[in-house]
Protein 1
Amino acid sequence: MRCQRCGDKADLIQKFDCDGVEKTVSLCKRCAREVLKNGSRIYKPGLVIMAKHSELVQDTILSYTPDLYGNHLNVFIAMPVAVQTMLFERDEDSEDRSMKEIYKRELVILKDRLRRAVANEDYRTASMIKRRIQRLEEILKS
């Protein structure tokens, strides 16, 4: 696995659950030292947003609506990434990493919805979801 910041071989790899989506952080020793030394500022407004997000996630049902993209999905897809950007100081690659993280989170949810659509024999919805999954996977490869 590669370091998320510089692309060298990752020495530290940590996986954890972030609102139901597996997140992997991988850093080389140099970047890990740099992040710990320089990137450890946590902003108070970000902590407030994180607390509100946690409350919202606890009160939101992931399968709330059969629509492909209900507004509630932003609670699980974009908000955790937005909270992360509000918590920590940004660097020149923060926006790219955030967008990739949003796409990865969307993929997890869409794959679950695809599984449900196929199980319910809703092939029209399954087809729409599959096309979106393919587009996201192409974006993440580039």
Protein 2
Amino acid sequence: MKALSLHNKKNAIMGTPQIRELLHEYINKADERLINLMYAMAQADMKEVDYELSTTHKKILDKRLAAHKANPSSGSSWEEVKTRVRSQL
């Protein structure tokens, strides 16, 4: 496989469109290991704002929040949760 270089023949830095084209060519020839690495990098770069909850998930959260507001003391402390989880291991 040809080495990936972000410099053109004149040794000047390429712009985004040229880099994008080169990456597309590179991805088309890359092995599975490299594809998985690149995908992991892209996933890590995604911001939370890029993710939107489904309507179903929003309804579940709204229901749980309403239940908490109706009875705030009904939940468990972090210490209680840790103890409960550790007892199940």
Protein 3
Amino acid sequence: MAHQHSIGLGATGTGVETARQYYVLFGFAKVNEVDPQRMAGGLTSYSIETSYGFLDLLLAPFLLPLTATSRTVVVRT
């Protein structure tokens, strides 16, 4: 499952930044802050894709007993 946002004109180059967002209480509270605008390096046109990737699925059995989940955030510039 993936969700994509385009900011400005969307991605116009080949730059890619990836980060992992962690949540506790089954997604109710964030553990860390992922800032897509900062990941874009101050550009005004970029795209953001949030998804549950392969690594997130591998981490799920270890995180669920802690009521934690994760998702992958990809910023393309």
